[in-house]
Amino acid sequence: MPSRYIFLEKAEKHYLSANHLLNTTLPAIKDPKLLLGVIENIFLCLESSIDALLSHESELLLITPPPKNFEGKLAVFQTRTAPRNKIDSSFVDLAVTMKELVELHKKTPMEFRRNDSFVLTSKDYRLKNLTVPLITQHLAKTKEFLENTKRIIEKYRKY
């Protein structure tokens, strides 16, 4: 099985995990800290989708093998893959936002719950508020990106 399908399968699993956490587990448990798990799965879904597209284009010899780090992959995706496949730049912005949130969570000096939201602080104590409506928007945008990725890859399935 070509690696693009492996990456696509991983992306679908991460999307389903994020969707389940947000729409099933969170309403039952009512703990906003679960939003961090949703953010992580959204980021992993976006990263796997980008990997699938880069792998796809690499197998078609449209690009050289992609770099291993996220920033390198994102640069190749943004400059070569996205314009060629008419992928909106808002998906790149979403991937960067999710990466920043994951990194902020790893480095945050303080995090806490406030009502139905979860707040992360930066080192200079700027607040980043994670709410269910915001994460729901990010998840919907992620689903759209995943569907676009599948459409692009399936277009060349017979080749």
Detailed description of the structure:
With 159 residues, the chain is mainly α. It has a single domain (3-99, 132-155), classed as Four Helix Bundle (Hemerythrin (Met), subunit A). Helix content is 70%, strand content 8%. It has a three-stranded antiparallel beta sheet with strand order 1-2-3. Strand 1 (111-114) and strand 2 (117-121) form a beta hairpin. Helix 2 runs parallel beside helix 5.
Keywords:
single chain, 159 residues, mainly alpha, Four Helix Bundle (Hemerythrin (Met), subunit A), three-stranded antiparallel beta sheet
CATH topology: Four Helix Bundle (Hemerythrin (Met), subunit A)
What number of structural domains do the residues give?
A: 1
Q: Characterize the largest beta sheet: strand count, sense, and whether it forms a barrel.
A: 3 strands, antiparallel
SSE class: mainly alpha
Question: What is the CA-based Rg, rounded?
Answer: 17 Å
Instruction: Count the beta strands.
Output: 3
Bin the strand percentage. Answer: 5-15%
Average pLDDT figure: 90
